[in-house]
């Protein structure tokens, strides 16, 4: 279809408009199976490779400044067996959180000064990275928010992290210090080492 080839593999309705494509054309492409709607206003070419993390991709296109975190990141890093029912994202405190009904999201607000600590990227689809926190930052955040997400999940993630070959204890301590959770993390490390 004219215009579809000029759009990125995953695109928003706003990007289509900027390319001079009317929304009715995008919805016609959706209705004829040429594009798939991942979320309200987010579309993907139907013939594109299947994304590994379609929900992450949809959320990242709707909220480009957000970062995948907590249980969602823990499941990617194999720090938990829990299957997240929502996509956990973080936004800087003081910014307006995105309003996304599908896929369901849970929004956390993190301090702007530490927001980019431990930031990495995950390829949600071939050539389409999304913002996500590293395994180390994820463990620290789970410890920091253990009252909200549950101590068993936080301690389990810490245990699994420490068993990894790429575990970096000094980075873990440094991030915990930067995010004001060094005391609880050290206590958890002491308990794990004693058992």
From TrEMBL:
Residues 10-44 form the AbiEi antitoxin N-terminal domain. InterPro entries: AbiEi_N. This is Type IV toxin-antitoxin system AbiEi family antitoxin domain-containing protein. It comes from Kineosporia corallincola.
């Amino acid at each position: 279809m004219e215009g579809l080839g000029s759009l990125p593999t995953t695109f928003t309705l706003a990007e289509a408009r900027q390319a001079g494509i009317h929304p009715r054309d995008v919805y016609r492409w959706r209705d004829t199976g040429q594009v798939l709607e991942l979320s309200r206003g987010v579309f993907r070419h139907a013939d594109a490779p299947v994304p590994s993390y379609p929900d992450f991709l949809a959320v990242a296109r709707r909220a480009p400044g957000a970062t995948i975190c907590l249980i969602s990141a823990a499941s990617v890093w194999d720090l938990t067996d829990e299957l997240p029912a929502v996509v956990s994202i973080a936004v800087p405190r003081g910014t307006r959180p995105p309003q996304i009904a599908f896929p369901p999201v849970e929004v956390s607000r993190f301090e702007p000064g530490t927001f980019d600590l431990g930031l990495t990227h995950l390829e949600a689809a071939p050539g389409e990275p999304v913002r996500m926190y590293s395994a180390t930052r994820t463990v620290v955040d789970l410890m920091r928010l253990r009252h909200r997400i549950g101590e068993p999940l936080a301690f389990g993630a810490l245990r699994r992290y420490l068993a990894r070959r790429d575990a970096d204890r000094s980075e873990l301590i440094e991030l915990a210090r930067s995010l004001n959770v060094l005391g609880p993390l050290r206590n958890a490390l002491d308990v794990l080492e004693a058992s």
